[in-house]
Amino acid sequence: xxxxxxxxxxxxxxxxxxxxxxxxxxxxxxxxxxxxxxxxxxxxxxxxxxxxxxxxxxxxxxxxxxxxxxxxxxxxxxxxxxxxxxxxxxxxxxxxxxxxxxxxxxxxxxxxxxxxxxxxxxxxx
Length: 125
Known about the structure:
Helix content: 10-25%
Strand content: 25-35%
CATH topology: 2,3-Dihydroxybiphenyl 1,2-Dioxygenase, domain 1
Order of helices and strands: EHEEEEHEEE
Largest sheet: 4 strands, mixed
Structural class: alpha/beta
Number of domains: 1
Number of helices: 2
Strand order of the largest sheet: 1-4-3-2
CATH class: Alpha Beta
């Protein structure tokens, strides 16, 4: 029914100006539209819509994943921009990266949060 229908993902934040700065300046996404929220373009043609919600509750799951070629370099680039990575006992190393590839347990992944405390990640397969 919807296989040929364009779609996009949307999520809430508590401060649109902070979100605009984070997603456009820190992450480098292209802001396409600011009507009723923020619409950003993703590589490959995807889109996200970020909207303000007074009673925003941060996502407790990874709601946006960025595929990277070199997780160590991507993590360092984000740290250089002030991003800190989540630490999960027994799962992430001192850099905040879960090394799944070397343990044959999936991709390498590192989690971080946007200013509204939504969880994002970088992933290297």
